[in-house]
Amino acid sequence: MPSTDIKDYWRRSWGIGDRVGKPGGLVEPGTEFYAKEVILTETMKENITAFEAQEGKGSYNKAKAYLKKRVRDGIWTGTGSGGANIRSTEEILELVKRTENGDVLIKEWMKNPTKENPVFDKLRETAKKRKTYENQMYTTKKKYEEFRKKKRIQEKKFEQSETYKNYQKKKMSQKGMFPAVDSKERLWRDIWRATNQKAGSRFKVVSKIPKAIISENGVKYIPWHNNYKNVVFLDTKTNKKITYEGLEKYMNKYIGKNTYKNAVKNYDIKKLLESEPIKFKGKNTTVGQVLRQGILSEKELKANKGFSAIEVNHKGANLDEFWNTEVTTRNANRKLVPLKSRYKKMFALATTQEGKAKIIKEFTKEVEKLPGGVRTIFEGAEVGIEPTAKKVITAAAKDTGLLYSKPFKSFVNSLPVKVAKGIFKMGARTVGAAMPVIGPGLIAWGVSDANKAYAAGLTKPDELTVAYNLGPEIAQAWSNWKTKEKKATLAGEAGLPEIDAFSAKDGGLSGVDQYLINRYK
Question: In this structure, is residue 36 part of a structural domain?
Answer without folding.
Answer: yes
